[in-house]
């Protein structure tokens, strides 16, 4: 018998008992298994194919244990995990949002996964929790606020078993929209200040030239 623990297999519905809320299916590995209808996305019909994940090849009763609830989300997270592995190996930036402060750093949401941003790997000052708080600190925002989409680099990824996955990131890389707006505002203010000074210098220079060109009325 093949060891398919942790794998997704296709089962075939052979009986549906709506009154008791269960359905029986054949796996092709052992005898029939029973699903709760509440665990399925929709009520199946006899002959329907239902994908299920093998959680135990031999449970304490010697039977096959299958999981169907949350299978779509698990598969989605597995795809995200593979994408993050490729980004880590290539050294590319991934997009995520700082969610909240945790012990030793910050939690970062990346495509449905929660990553850890150590305080020592945070680039910038501690992020304010809201834009209003940032404004209250002087109106200058030099770090992305919580919930703002930013770039991050993956430092480490580890996986132990089927349910534990750990992603450690650094960043933000390139700052967020709020930080870019603050930088653009600073550049604009500097440009306006330079323009005002330049116009003042030009006016003073023109006045000096006019005085030099005027005849001495006292002669």
Can you characterise this structure?
- This protein is of the alpha+beta class.
- It is 29% helix and 34% strand.
- The chain has three helices and ten strands, in the order βββββαβββαββα.
- It has helices spanning 71-90, 131-136, 177-213, and strands at residues 8-17, 22-26, 33-36, 49-56, 65-67, 93-102, 105-110, 113-118, 149-160, 164-173.
- The strands form two sheets. Strands 3-2-1-4-5 form a five-stranded antiparallel sheet, with no helix packed on it. The protein has a five-stranded antiparallel sheet with strand order 8-7-6-9-10, covered by helices on one side.
- β6 and β7 (105-110) form a beta hairpin.
- The protein starts with 7 loop residues before the first strand and ends in a 6-residue tail after the last helix.
